[in-house]
Amino acid sequence: DAGVTQSPTHLIKTRGQHVTLRCSPISGHKSVSWYQQVLGQGPQFIFQYYEKEERGRGNFPDRFSARQFPNYSSELNVNALLLGDSALYLCASNLVRGLTDTQYFGPGTRLTVL
Amino acid sequence: QKEVEQDPGPLSVPEGAIVSLNCTYSNSAFQYFMWYRQYSRKGPELLMYTYSSGNKEDGRFTAQVDKSSKYISLFIRDSQPSDSATYLCAMSASGSSNTGKLIFGQGTTLQVKP
């Protein structure tokens, strides 16, 4: 079975630009979560989507947005990029069971903002 | 104060040693506890998943949760150079509003020397 896939692998942008990151979850998983991991830190929760609806949002500005498509793939969009947005962006495919879930991470997209 | 505290290390041990990795947390609502392994520039890989207090063993890995002390541990027996990586603890609370949201520690960098 294919694991979680993310694209692109690496991305270089300049301040003020917009970026779109993509994620395809594990087949059969209907939920994805997005995380930002700054170098030397643990991942920080940005969003969770389940069945195309937002179920959770972390403490990130409105410049960050996401959506989930009918095939359960997802996009993370970041507008007006800042230098501080440089990080590894991780997508997790969530196997939801009742009120909890198990998260499996993709390889991430490394974003550099110059 | 961070919700989850983890010593970043680095921790250096000889091959074959028993490794002990730990996290403390402050939120008594956390009920699900995970350990992830992350190799350099890769996504986190789920190692262990534990619900509530107690021990769980999987091969060379043992996870312990002590909710009364708000303390979790991961033990690695007969450590190998291939175990060299960053180990992230993660936890979540129950309930639909918390599904998909993991709170991570900073990660501990482990080096196992041949």
| Strand and helix order of chain A | EEEEEEEEEEE
Q: Low-confidence stretches of chain B at least 5 residues in length (pLDDT < 50)?
A: none
Shape summary of chain A? globular
Distance between the termini of chain B: 37 Å
Strand content of chain A: over 45%
List low-pLDDT spans of chain A.
none
Using the CA coordinates, give the radius of gyration of chain A: 13 Å
**Helix and strand sequence of chain B:** EEEEEEEEEEE
Notes on the structure:
The complex is a heterodimer of chains A (114) and B (114). Chain A has strands at residues 5-7, 10-13, 19-24, 31-37, 44-50, 53-57, 64-68, 74-78, 87-97, 100-105, 109-113. Chain A has 114 residues and is mostly beta strands. In chain A, a hairpin with a 2-residue loop joins strand 5 (44-50) and strand 6. The radius of gyration of chain A is 13 Å and the shape is globular. Chain A starts with a strand and ends with a strand. The model of chain A has no long low-confidence stretch (mean pLDDT 93). The model of chain B has no long low-confidence stretch (mean pLDDT 92). Chain B has strands spanning 4-5, 11-14, 19-25, 30-38, 45-51, 54-58, 61-66, 71-76, 85-93, 103-104, 108-113. In chain B, the strands form two sheets. In chain B, strands 2, 4, 5, 9, 10 and 11 form a six-stranded mixed β-sheet that branches. Chain B has a five-stranded antiparallel β-sheet with strand order 1-3-8-7-6, with no helix packed on it. Chains A and B meet through strand 4, strand 5, strand 9 and strand 10 of A and strand 4, strand 5, strand 9 and strand 10 of B.
